[in-house]
Amino acid sequence: MASAAAAEAAFGAGAAALGLFSYNRGNFQYDASLRFERFNAGREFALEQAEQYRGDMRALSALTQKKNTMYAIMASLCMALCVALYCAGRLGLHGPSPPAWIMGLWYTNNAAAFSFMALAIWLATHAAFRAQSASVSLLTRKIRVPVPTLKQLDQARKFASEFEQQSWGDMFRVPYISNNGAPKTDDTVEVKAGGKGSGSRSHSAPPGRRSRPASSWVREEFETDRAGTITGCAPMLPADAAPEHFRLYLQLQKEWFAYDIYARVCILLGLLSYVHALGYYGLGHINIELRAFWVAHATGFVLMVLHALLLRFDIVKPVGKKELLPNCQWLGPMAWVPAAVGMSLDFRVEFSLTAIAICWVCIFLSYILQFIYTLRLIEIVLPDDWRSAFKAEERIGATWWPESWHVPSSFQHVLYLVAPPLKLQPGQHDLYREIKEGLGSNAEDAGTSQSPRTNQVPQIESVYSQMQYVDSLFEWAFQDAVFSRLSNNGKSQLRTLCDGYVNAKNNSRSSSDTELPRICRECVTGINAIVTEEGGMTAIPGSDSGYDSAGARSPVPSPRDVMGKTEEAHRAGSSLPPFTATQHIQPWRLVTSVVVALAISWVFLICGCIVDVILGEQALVTAPHWSRPPMTRLSLEPHELGTPIGFPWPAGSKPWIPEQMAWHEEKRRAEMETLGARRLSAPGAPRGSGVSAALDGLLSVLARAPR
């Protein structure tokens, strides 16, 4: 009887054990199929997000490329117009040359327009191709589609026989009594360090038993997913940190955003100078060659209104920036007014010393206004410094750039600059980063104990990959081309990080397994913070995973050894990549140099006008007629007809004589009353003999030609 009861008990226990085994084995197989489906779904979402990120790179670079290509085309067309004013449209070609002072205003502005447009082409070309190159580099090296490897697919796949490798407790887990084996989800409340919290639990889990470890295969799945596939650990970045491709592009964009900005500034300055030149050109051309007094004033007025509208549209008053010459940009279009009055007085019918004096006053006033206007342009094109840096407000559909970027805020609304965001917006998630870097270990997600199958191997490889990545960071940061550009505070912070990393690596054999990964994360975060604060640095070279192009591990050098070797090799000139020590000139210096040269030209022309007032016009240099080579030849007696050039008195100081009023094409002598010998006829030929002699010569040649 007792044996029968024991047999029944044994049979019941065996049946219960078999039932528990079958139940848990069914759960294992069901979870295995869901695990593979979850792996595929996560990779599919990550692939789609990676394509979205790659599209972001193309869109950001296309904005810069297309915009600056348009700038270059506009600048090329304007340069052609400037050349037209220099050559085909030059004054004095069909009539007497205008006064030297009006040509100074005209030609100087035309030269400034040509210079600004040429500089705009160079800046725009650099910005466009630099942005395109950065996009191609990121797309081909960093922002890659996270295609899973065969090893990752093998890890995600589970065989039914692997259930035999699980722990006995998981094989014979009793439902509802022991832990149900389900992990906490990602949207539960974080449990505090003491292990107590208000995390949500499944409805089937009894109170107080939810914190027990999950099943071994569940813990293994979460450990694999949260470990990361590239860097091996999650750096200490905020949860709303911007995706990696935005952070990389933001660092690279610092290399060309200033070229993009000042290409647009050069377009404006070039158009302003060209409109100025057209206004002064109209005063000379319409007054002298067309002899339309009223038309010259009306035409110039319309052009100066356009000049003022361009200023009003592109230049706004900056907020918080202290200005030395506020609103002096309006002196630019106003400078044309005294020039128009001066031209009217310079070509008045009756000779008057008072009119000449007033004319000189107008001339000097026009030049002085041009000079002050140019000084105002210098103040406008200078970038805001750190004391009054403009902070762009980030709005949907508006331009935006970081506060640390020093830009000329007077052009803030026409820069069309879009920088990547610094953080994720609510509702946005970076699944690509979670798969690449992992979410880090969280014991409350899947249990406090690790799977017996891991044997710490993935963690050791993860730490080794982190060390490889940190070593590459320090190798790049301690290069002279980079280290010399850091501030004293940045150098001190970098040395502190290096010392802590070296000590942790030397003591890694005796320290805990979590100490070195923590130091690696702190080093990555610290170097990123230094780069962000200092700015102007290129992307960090090397592979994040610690592997070379052949798939083999590279040796792990000490940062101290790296720094010493780098400095020694740099002195030998063989280690650093080419052009790393090159210091590029800032675009604002290029543009400011042209504006300063323009201001110096106005000062020089003002001094020249003072000399003309004292000594007389053309007292030092007398120009030859344009049609008589050589061009350096002095005027002969009788003086050149048709222009005041060559007379021994200042132009306008004596009443004009008829010989001075003759056009170049007439070429008559003082004793001639009608048109006579042309300038290409033989010396001493009778009047009108040039054409007849040419016809006689042609007929004689035809008569002697062989038949």
UniProtKB/TrEMBL annotation:
User: Which spans are transmembrane here?
Assistant: 70-91, 111-129, 261-281, 293-312, 351-373
**Keyword Transmembrane belongs to the record:** yes
Region described as Disordered: spans on this chain: 179-217, 540-564
UniProt entry tagged with the keyword Transmembrane helix: yes
Protein's name in the database: Uncharacterized protein
Swiss-Prot/TrEMBL keywords: Membrane, Transmembrane, Transmembrane helix
Q: Which organism is it from?
A: Alexandrium catenella (Red tide dinoflagellate)
Q: Coiled-coil stretches, from where to where?
A: none
